[in-house]
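Quick illustration, no need to memorize.
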Amino acid sequence: MSVVPAEVLPGSVLAVEETVREAAELAPRARLWPALAAVYRAQLSRARVARIPLLFVATFQSIGILIMMRGVVDGGSEAESVVAGSSVLVVAFVALNLLAQYFGQLRSNGGLDHYATLPVPPAAVVLGAAGAYASFTVPGTVVTAVFGCVLFGLPMGNLWILAAVIPLAGAALAGLGAALGLLAPRPELATVLGQLGMSAALLLGVLPADRMPEAVRFARDLLPSTYGVEAYARTFGPHPDWAFVLGDLAVCAFVGVVSLAVATWAFRRAAVR
């Protein structure tokens, strides 16, 4: 048997290794918006069956709170706060509570490894999942708002403001829920944190602020959903102050950008571990 140097062979080993190395290179990273749309559609179709029963639970929970508060609150500004808070509570239940549980489980069962191997920006994964979960809140929020207006005799002429309240408050709460799920060391802790956040939205958002102590009011101001509640509640009056409404929505938008950025950083941090 004769030994022939690799350099003199027609298809040298070096050339084969170079070809294999080129073939093993990953595809170029997808752009943000096409990747975001793909993740959104995938999450929406995946969660459609599993999350719809929970959406009914969130809606019935808010309607039950409205019925319970009807025996305590007669009308006026307190009724406006109750209806607005119960409507935004549907968003908090899905976007904050369920999203914290989802990302907590995704981190514990190795699901983040799947997304880490795809040429998809981390921001697309976070925004796509947050958008899909927030989309499920639209029917429940509208039903709760209409039921509350009928129950308390409030006008429904400015119900269109929910088209801005739902996505902006949903973005703020979804970003917070995703960050809690990704930063929690255990999925059980992520579930607890998500439920605590939803409970805070329930107690601080539904109950009238005028009856709260000063310390509780300060905690209420720190909750992102508060500004969605305030923006919606301000539209019930005969002459709404739209400057304050836009200001509350701007706060929701700012918190949404910050919370989603934190969630994206937390996703990168959890995916490389």
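Residues 6-27 have pLDDT under 50 and may be disordered.
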